[in-house]
Amino acid sequence: MASASLLKSSPVVDKSEFLKGTQSVRHPTAAVSVRSHPTTTSLTVCATSSYADELIKTASQGLVPLAGSNDESWCQGLDGLASRSAAYYQQGARFAKWRTVVSIPNGPSALAVKEAAWGLARYAAISQDNGLVPIVEPEILLDGEHGIDRTFEVAQKVWAEVFYYLAKNNVMFEGILLKPSMVTPGAECKERATPEQVAEYTLKLLSRRIPPAVPGIMFLSGGQSEVEATLNLNAMNQSSNPWHVSFSYARALQNTCLKTWGGRPENVAAAQEALLVRAKANSLAQLGKYTGEGESEESKKGMFVKGYVY
Fold first, then answer.
1. What's a Pfam family this protein contains (predicted)?
2. Mean per-residue pLDDT over the chain, rounded
3. Whole domain around residue 42: which residue ranges?
4. Is residue 97 flagged as an active site residue?
5. Residue in 179, 226, 228, 295 annotated catalytic
6. Which of 151-155, 162-166, 294-298 is least confident?
């Protein structure tokens, strides 16, 4: 059973071995983790290669065209995942992440929704069976001209399928983390939504589809501007809900920081400050106390890229 594996005791890592291994790591982003999309990556406690090297090795994994669909994708990588997960656990990993996407303009077809849900469920069951906490990431892409009601309609179907198959695969809900997209209009929709509307629709979706046993929900930003993603998260935390509603942003944390840095050593301090500003803003948003005051113009720029893949 999946739940039994979560009682595994952590392996004891000899300090000398850890130090010996870390001395050979030159890349600053090397860490103990498993990410199953867009690549499946093993980064060990005693790593001898960089994060970038590991990504290159497994670049063939991830989203690929789904035959018989409306030009949609599915996320491959389940073959051999059990043995890899067991090895990752022994190397020190304690969590995994699997991202799969659903495109509204392309349907979404029933086939694509079922494939996304089944893949996430099998990955979660395999992860728990090997002692890893699965981060389950069903993303409704921002592409399209549709309104917020259409996003809500599709997200209801996708989340229903995901939790149906999670249950069918005996996944322990209290042993997962959910990383979904917020309920927003399509990026090209002329009628924009306020943070209050996004919060209302997203929390309504959570209450209809997510069991209270799920301990944490970390929203992705998906191409929203830094400020927009933070305002929407803040609005959600101004309403009561049984979950810890948090964030797991990439672009909405990194954009201003990376542009400030620009690869120049003399800009490092300013880039670090920009990152701290964003981290503090989202920390306040988790408490419902973010005001949006003093934000830069750069942080207000949208980051949506049509057909974006990573």
1. Glycolytic
2. 81
3. 2-220
4. no
5. 179
6. 294-298
